[in-house]
Amino acid sequence: MNLNKYLKTSLAKQFSLLTAMIIIAFSCLIISLLIYQNKLTLDFHDKNEQLETKLDLSSDLDYAFNLAVSEMRAYFAYEANSYFENVKKQEEKIEDKMVLLQKYSENEEDILFLQEVQRFHSYYFENMMPRSKALFDEGKKDEVRAIATENASDRIRAYQSSLKQYTESLQQAVEDNYLQLEKNILYSQIAFAAALFLLIIAMVIFTRMMLVRIGKPLRTLTQAAGQIADGETVIFTDKINRQDELGLLSIAFEKMTKSIQDKEQDLSAQNEELLAQQDELQAQQSELEEALEMTQKRELDLKLRNDLVEGLANSLDKQAVLMSIVKTMCDVINADKGIVVLLDKGHDHAYFGISKQESKQFIQNLDSGLITKVILTKKPYTIKRDCNVDELAYHTTKSYCFDMYIPVLSSSGSVEAIMMYSRFSDPFDELELDEYEALSKQVAISLDKIKIFEQSEEERLLVQDIFDNIKEGIQLVDTKGSVIQINKKLSDMIQSDSDSIIQNSYEDWFKKLSVTVENKHDLKKFFDRVLVDGKFDDPSFVYHQQSPTKRVVQVYCEPLTRKGDTFGTVIVHRDITKEYEVDLMKSEFVSTVSHELRTPLASVLGFTELMLNKELKPERQKKYLTTIYQEAKRLTALINDFLDVQRMEAGKQTYDKRYDDILPLLTSIVETNQINSPNHTLHVDSRTSNTMVLGDKDKIGQVFNNLINNAIKYSPDGGNVYVDIFEEGPNLKIAIKDEGLGIPADAIEKLFAKFYRVDNTDRRRIGGTGLGLAIVKEIMKAHDGEISVQSEPKEGSTFTVSFPIVIGTHNPSENSTQENDDTKVNVIIVEDDSSLAQLLQTELEESNFHVKVYNNGETALKAIKSEKPDAIVLDIMLEEKGINGWDIIKELKEIDTLQSIPIFISSALDEKEKGLALGANEYLVKPYQPSKLSKLILQTLLKKDWSGQILVPSESHDD
């Protein structure tokens, strides 16, 4: 009863009650929905977590069993106890996982799978493994293989099948659990929507009823208000019996009507008084308008100054700030044009209202008197001048312009910039000068800020440039792992530009890095320990990256501290691929060399022991000694390869280069290898007669021996080996092709590296140290040649060596003396020392040159002019009378047909610069080796024309 009376006294209370009821009903619906959905989610997570745990246990069991089987096989393969110890460790891990699995077994399927795991564990670790190890240790390897082939593989496959079925059932259970959660949530949402719809309908009905009760009395009051507005007398006959606001409003409205009628006369008298006051207010309004105009002017002035301050503060772009300064200052000063120029090296500037040519003129005259004055006084000043023609426009009367120069002083007190503004309206007074000087200080502060920013930006760019030029990938992260800065090397490794990585969170940048990382989980653990846990006890880790290139990277972290507080971490990614490959190569080398050295040593020691301890027949002794000799030769060749590589790396390998025909050498090597390899057929095909090269015969023979031996060795099933000799441009090429195993494409680029051998089972059965091709490449490099390879796996390989060709070679026969003379190079020696002349003549003739000797300058010059030799060997100091070598050179260089003949000075005078300046090709100071002269002549002629116009000797000789 009391509640009903309480509600009737106020509309607001009625509406408040209605609103409260709606809110309470809606809140109950929401809370019910949230409680129900929360229960569904908790049940889902509990069940899902249990299923995920079972999946992890099954995965761990699978991995542990597979690793145990692999380690046991490794034990059988390598007979190393460390592998068997690893098997025992895996057994312990499996037993731990079985205990956990038993803890989580809750249905029949879990129990059956656990029983299968226990049976397989009992079978493998308690039965098969101990029995196999015992048999293997006793040397009964056939019985071990029999155990493996009888039923071990079947039992393993059966266990793996059971594991797979159990894992698939768990995954299906996870999916079913998720689908059930979605279905329950959908049902709860439908129920909530239906309840909400019913609540809205009830709210509409109650609201409609209340509005009808309110509308009727309001219409009555509105009708009465209209009658009052029309000047009618209103008499209330129907009383509104309500206790709420409408009832009170009706009573007040009736009282107001009576009061209005009573006071109507008073209002008429007051109206006359108000008319008198209106005239007084109009006068006051005029005064207020003048004050308002002044206030608006001040407000505009303040706005312009505020714009100047904002323009200075809101940008660090120097040109934008200068432009803002000159425009805003023109508005503040009411200037028609202006310019601001920095007094730095670049004279950065901005202008407004003037032309580009005028701005250049101002900058070019910074040393003029007007500007020098403001720099010296450091105070602003103004001048009055007549307007220029271009400033008068259409005005014909005399006009004036007022210029103001304002210095901008830096914090150190020096003039940093000059501002000049001009206006045609009014002169500048002293008060304005003081005011604008104060504004120039704001400009100076902004310019100092920009200068500091530019300096810091230059330092930042310098640091970034240093970072970018460091070969290691570097990143700086804050205490939360977010990227602060990286260098170009790291962005290349992550394959993302630096702007997209900066400010990335730890999870984001690690995701980009881990895409190409092979051991990403271990790398994640390392970063978690360092960046999340803050443990730097083991600050380095090695990971393998697959793209953009395969590489091995060592990452290490160091904390960044300042005054004892850690504010970040520097992470360095160092590419250690070469070092990693070197370590692998070193291990491979030790293994290979151990095998290659022990095999022949075992034969030598074994046969030597037999000969020392037993009486042997002579033929058996000879056979054993022959074997010892061959194995010793094999050891010698191996050691020589090591020594050759060492000498080549140290640059101490010497070569006795001579001109030799390689065809007989190559034929001899092929015949020797054919005898030693009856299962192979070797073919030699020469498609050129120019088979002369300049080189060390023994080393070139070593090249061909290595390549042909490799062709035979890597064709274990026999077949053909083709040796093709042909010309290609300025090069003589020898291609050695086999039909053997071939080389994988990814191994070709590493083929000529020391100790490298292709990782293939077929090749591991073939001996070798991996030095042969490295030696071949160094020998070819020393002979200005090249070696290349083309290969397809299972289709054979082709190795091609290339030598600079010796053009115009000719192999003379004994009965073709005249033809041989025609192909020889003609050389004239001018030498007054008969012994030396004879020595040089013998050397050149042995090299198949046609030689004539003269000891007199005049005679030699006549012979040169008539015979036009291919080369001249000239001594400078000839007989005391007559011309000397210098005179001969000068005269020859003045004759067009003779000036191209190569001249080789042979003199005891050390005046090489003068000789070369006069046009000599080479300058030899006595004493020197005569063989050096023949090589220089031939090399010069080859450089002169390799197309065959110059004939060169074809017979080899010894130095």
From TrEMBL:
Domain Histidine kinase: where?
A: 592-807
Q: Where is the signal peptide?
A: none
Q: Which residues form a coiled coil?
A: 253-298
The answer to whether UniProt assigns keyword Lipid metabolism to this entry is no
- Kindly state which keywords UniProt assigns to this record, in alphabetical order: ATP-binding, Cell membrane, Coiled coil, Kinase, Membrane, Nucleotide-binding, Phosphoprotein, Transferase, Transmembrane, Transmembrane helix, Two-component regulatory system
Stored SUPFAM superfamilies: ATPase domain of HSP90 chaperone/DNA topoisomerase II/histidine kinase, CheY-like, GAF domain-like, HAMP domain-like, Homodimeric domain of signal transducing histidine kinase, PYP-like sensor domain (PAS domain)
Q: Which residues form the Response regulatory domain?
A: 826-941
Q: Give the stretches traversing the membrane.
A: 15-36, 190-211
The protein in question is named: histidine kinase
Organism equals Metabacillus litoralis
